[in-house]
Amino acid sequence: MGGTLGPVLERAQLPVSEWGNPPKNPETRSIRLEFALLLAPVLFAIGGTFIWLASPLFAHPGGLAADGCHNDRKNGGRHCHRGSSAGQSKSAPSNRAVYYPNCAAARAAGAAPIYSGQPGYGKHLDRDGDGKACE
User: Fold this and answer.
1) In angstroms, rounded to a whole number, what is the distance separating the alpha carbons of residues 115 and 36?
2) Which helix (H) or strand (E) holds 78?
3) Total-model pTM
4) Where is the composition biased (Polar residues) (predicted)?
5) In 19, 27, 62, 96, which residue has its Cα 20 to 30 A from 106's Cα atom?
């Protein structure tokens, strides 16, 4: 072994050559058990922390618009995650006669591009925020 680890390993209670064998000394067994019982909660805490920190990363696949909303394919309408409308699912706005869930629908209706103030305009359709949706 290396010059620095040699003396340390020679003084160890269980020589490296016997690490794979079960200890014959009951005191050594209790030290191993104590080490395992102390190490297990630490490993669980570290693992739990990583899972807790990483869980928001897997909570949503992404694709949010600037307003924090996206089209809810499962239930229809729009679904928001942040901002003033977070947690609400909104269908067609009640104050507008026309609603397009996406630019493909607006183009299919022959309405694209849609300018701010026109029926059917929505911030979710205006990606760059210049007042001209579905450019």
Assistant:
1) 67
2) strand 78-80
3) 0.30
4) 85-94
5) 62
The 10s digit of each residue's pLDDT in 79-120 is: 777 655 444 544 544 445 788 888 898 888 888 888 888 888
Q: How far lies 117's CA from each of 25, 30, 42, 85, 114, in Å?
A: 85, 77, 59, 21, 9
Minimal CA–CA distance to 75: which of 59, 96, 61, 89? 89
Cα–Cα nearest to 100, from 125, 66, 81: 125
CA distances from 35 to 5, 8, 12, 87, 128 (A): 21, 19, 15, 47, 58
User: Using alpha carbons only, what angle is made at residue 83 by residues 78 and 89, rounded to the nearest 5 degrees?
Assistant: 25
